[in-house]
Amino acid sequence: EGGFSKFKQAAMGVASGIAAIGGAAIAAVSALLRVDEATREYRENMAKLETSFQSTGKSADDARTAYTNLYAILGDEDQATEATQLLSNIVQGEQDIAVWSDIAAGVVGRFGDSLPVESLIESANETANVGKVTGTLADALNWAGISEDDFNEKLAQCSSTQERNTLITETLSGTYLDAAEAYKKNNEQTMTLRENQVRLKDSTARLGDAVSDLKTKFTMDLIPGLGAVIDSFVDVLNGLDGADEQFANDIEALVAAAVEKLPDFIDLGIDILWALIEGMIAALPEVIAALPEIILSLIDKIISLVPEFI
After folding, report:
1. Between the ranges 164-178, 257-271, 291-305, where is the mean pLDDT highest?
2. Residue 100 binned pLDDT confidence (cut-offs 50, 70, 90)
3. Nearest 5°: CA angle at 206, between 201 and 208?
4. How far apart are CA 70 and CA 121, in angstroms?
5. How many other C-beta atoms are found inside a 10 Å radius of the C-beta of residue 133?
6. 32 pLDDT exceeds 90?
7. For position 270, what pLDDT does the model report?
């Protein structure tokens, strides 16, 4: 009896362990599948940006560089996405992206939200097209002490849109260079943290892409069998002869198909998780460097919530 009791306890322990592992596995898979939905908006935004840049002769890498630079300055995903998309019509390559990133930093450093960067880029593009200062560009010039009338005369002397674009870029770059350098120096940690956030989002988005492809493939492979199950179930409801047997056979076939695909699902899931772990390990030095800023942000957030807790 004592031996049986020990065996029973051991068996219960094994069962509990299996249940715990199963529960953890289900939770992990559930979290993995949610990555698809959680990263959908970011992936859609990046797809738009890549399309905008590629349609104007630039690369997807240019789009990502521009977005990363602008997000590091602006700290807002929607604003950075809009500004980057508009920037695709002005820049010609990496050098222009760097110049316009400095312009954005200088404008934000001097005027903050009162002179939106996305509006400035839009009006700069419009000005280059029509040959006359428009919109927010007028504020960017006037507030910096540059005569709008004098600048319009310079625009009139340009013979092409590209020349006007170059004039606008060089003027803004020279005007806001000092402010840009001061802004980047004073906000170095914040900008580095935001750049790391974009890198992490990129990694998570790639994971979301893989999960989305996996879900689509898995679903498509099971759709024929699922359709057969639905059809045979309708036949059962209609009382057709032999429908119950066909329904059972279709269910069995669907389960067999799912079991057959399960190893591929698990293998790919393991590959995805391992790639994510490797990426996190590779990013550890940057994460550690950003820890002081993260801790300070958390402390500020906790302090701001104290009145609500009270």
Report:
1. 164-178
2. very high
3. 90
4. 12
5. 22
6. no
7. 61
- Between 305 and 165, residue with greater pLDDT: 165
The secondary structure of the chain in percent helix, strand, coil, rounded to multiples of 5, reads: 90, 0, 10
- Rounded Cα distance between 166 and 238, Å, is 74
* Closest C-alpha among 132, 63, 144 to residue 103: 144
Nearest to 228 by CA among 189, 254, 202, 205: 254
Q: pLDDT tens digit string along 69-90?
A: 999 999 999 999 999 999 998 8
| DSSP letters for 267-302 | HHHHHHHHHHHHHHHHTHHHHHHHHHHHHHHHHHHH
Is the torsion defined by CA of 164, 168, 174, 180 positive or negative? Answer: negative
Pairwise CA distance, residues 103 & 82, whole Å: 16
Longest dimension (CA), the chain: 104
Residue 80 near residue 71, CB atoms below 8 Å: yes
Q: What token pair was written down for 260? A: 């057959």
Structure tokens at 120: 């400035």
C-alpha to C-alpha distances, 66 to 72, 89, 185, nearest whole angstrom: 10, 12, 19
Predicted local distance difference test score (pLDDT) of residue 2: 47
Angle at 306 between CA 300 and CA 310, to 5 degrees: 180
CB 235 within 8 A of CB 248: no
Distance CA 310, CA 295 (A): 22
Geometric angle at alpha carbon 222, from 219 and 226, rounded to 5°: 115
